[in-house]
Specification:
The complex is a heterodimer of chains A (115) and B (111).
Chain A lengths: L3 E4 L2 E4 L5 E7 L4 E9 L5 E8 L5 E2 L8 E7 L2 E6 L8 E9 L5 E3 L3 E5 L1
Parallel strand pairs in A: 2-11
Antiparallel strand pairs in A: 1-3, 3-8, 4-5, 4-9, 5-6, 7-8, 9-10, 9-11
Chain B lengths: L3 E2 L4 E5 L4 E7 L6 E7 L6 E7 L4 E4 L2 E6 L4 E6 L8 E8 L5 E3 L3 E6 L1
Parallel strand pairs in B: 2-11
Antiparallel strand pairs in B: 1-3, 3-8, 4-5, 4-9, 6-7, 7-8, 9-10, 9-11
Classes of the chains: A mainly beta (115), B mainly beta (111).
Chain lengths: 115, 111
């Protein structure tokens, strides 16, 4: 199978601090990883597409300086929420796509709560 | 602008009966459609997919139907089981392999 992990699964932080979330493809190489955000009772919204070794492509309305994405290897992408505020509290989900595959394999998600 | 829509936020079905989850889309350029199942505080898990060149795909208790002229797809689960209770998202894939998700339908299967 294709397993994607996220760490941490749940994080609480104070307003103004930065939080890093890791996304790892455990048994395959993922040239492309995606970061999604889900608000309660809403759809998953694509934030950015991350390609290994290059800058991430952000969706309209997503602040690239606030949500820093790094895809340093074929198995790891990180999302850093900088200067987090309570409105950034959400469920962040990553996914990874195998080469020549039509679909993505999702991580279990990270719940961020900003106090 | 929501390109993929699931107009029913919730659905309750008796165990053993058929569950029908509906999804509409607006972009005729979508060429692949997927259904994901999501439990609370977990990431979505892939369920079943269908290419735009087909109108039906079946996998065990799950069948997805695609009506391209109506820009409509549906997921049928029969027979429904209590373990099927979850939020179901339909998603559409562009040629660039980006997923657009619907807003989800919460299915409750009543024992």
């Amino acid at each position: 199978g294709a397993v994607v992990s996220q760490h941490p699964s749940w994080v609480i932080c104070k307003s103004g601090t930065s939080v890093k979330i890791e996304c790892r493809s455990l048994d395959f190489q993922a040239t492309t990883m995606f970061w999604y955000r889900q608000f309660p009772k809403q759809s998953l919204m694509l934030m950015a597409t991350s390609n290994e070794g290059s800058k991430a492509t952000y969706e309209q309305g997503v602040e690239k300086d606030k949500f820093l994405i790094n895809h340093a290897s074929l198995t790891l992408s990180t999302l850093t929420v900088t200067s987090a505020h309570p409105e950034d509290s959400s469920f962040y989900i990553c996914s990874a796509r195998k080469d020549s595959s039509n679909w993505q394999f999702f991580g279990p998600g990270t719940r961020l709560t900003v106090l | 602008d929501q390109q993929v829509k699931q107009n029913s936020p919730s659905l309750s079905v008796q165990e053993g009966r058929i569950s029908i989850l509906n999804c509409d889309y607006t972009n005729s350029m979508f060429d692949y459609f997927l259904w994901y199942k999501k439990y609370p505080a977990e990431g979505p898990t892939f369920l079943i997919s269908i290419s735009s060149i087909k109108d039906k795909n079946e996998d065990g208790r799950f069948t997805v139907f695609l009506n391209k002229s109506a820009k409509h797809l549906s997921l049928h689960i029969v027979p429904s089981q209590p373990g099927d209770s979850a939020v179901y998202f339909c998603a559409a894939l562009t040629g660039a392999n980006n997923l657009f998700f619907g807003t989800g339908t919460r299915l409750t299967v009543i024992p």
